[in-house]
Amino acid sequence: MSTNQDNINDKSNNSKCSRFCADLTGTCRCSPSYRSADGNGREIDIVRSFSPPGVLSLLFKLCVLTLAVFTLAYTVGKDPRPFYLAYATHWSLIIANLYALLSTVNVLLPVQQPETVHSPVGVRVKTTWIVFILAANSQLIVTVLYWVLLYSGGAVPFYDILSHGVVFVMVWIDGFLVSRIPVRARHWLEVSAWFCVLYLVWSIIHSDLAADVGNPDKSDNDPDTNDDSIYGLLDWGNGDQVPTSTIVLSIVVVFVASPVSHLVMVAVSRCGRRYVEEAFDCFPADDDNVAKLSQSVAVTNGDGTEHSNLPPAPSIHSASSNGDDLEQRY
């Protein structure tokens, strides 16, 4: 009995690893990212995942939208200049506002379930999906980097509490608990990584290496510091030599902090995903196992014939669990 259970566990673990690898490499195979087919052979309920019903859902999303708009307006009021857009915090805050708006609209005007599991989702669902991944990932990275690298102790301004904590928590609760938006491993390469990459590109353009925009918020007479950089830790030098610390920080953020934060998002999103067929969970199973399970719960009709009281397997689960099947799901 123990041996059989060990074999089942090993098969289950191998199946999970195969699904993760198929998910991660889906981008390279140019397979669609945004559809209701999930890697475990089930169909994601797009309607309940992006347009959760109920007055409480609407009220919470209105609270998130109000908080995001208030935080954005408050920060703009403190710094009403074009240079406001130079900071990563404000980039992530603008993205969070866009997500909060789309999320609220989706409850007021519910989205539609795709005709089949392999059909592409609607434009509004896809846009919300992408913007949420950007918002959740950028909010996490910006919040962690602020408290770990930039915060120097002492009293914390109200603005920093809102933009480096409160908005982050509210966006995550809204996306992962209220809406249950699924996040896939392949979305890091397709979406999440680009926030860090594009911001690094902007910081280089801003620096002395390119446009030499300068920083009106910083000015000192110390020749050993660059008061033109956006962040002191992201100093690309004066054009002669790029500090090693800046190169190391850039590599760590793009290739460590960003993917790790995205994997946390993937793990969180796997908890409680909403499926169209809640009563049937294929892991994936093969046809022999399904047949045995059906026989074990067979019900006798009045005419003496038997039928199974199990719901049919979801349409996206194929007869085999080989690599081709996994690739079709991702």
Descriptive account of the structure:
It contains 10 helices and 2 strands; from the N terminus they run αααααααααββα. The protein has helices spanning 2-24, 46-50, 55-78, 88-108, 123-150, 158-178, 187-206, 244-269, 287-296, 323-329; strands at 298-300, 306-308. A two-stranded antiparallel ribbon has the order 1-2.
The total of helices stands at: 10
How far is the first residue's CA from the last residue's CA?
A: 35 Å
Strand order of the largest sheet: 1-2
Residue-averaged pLDDT, rounded?
80
List keywords for this structure.
56% helix, single chain, mainly alpha, two-stranded antiparallel ribbon, 330 residues, 2 strands
Write the layout of secondary structure elements.
Elements: H1 2-24, H2 46-50, H3 55-78, H4 88-108, H5 123-150, H6 158-178, H7 187-206, H8 244-269, H9 287-296, E1 298-300, E2 306-308, H10 323-329
Short description:
The chain is mainly alpha-helical and 330 residues long. It is built from ten helices and two strands.
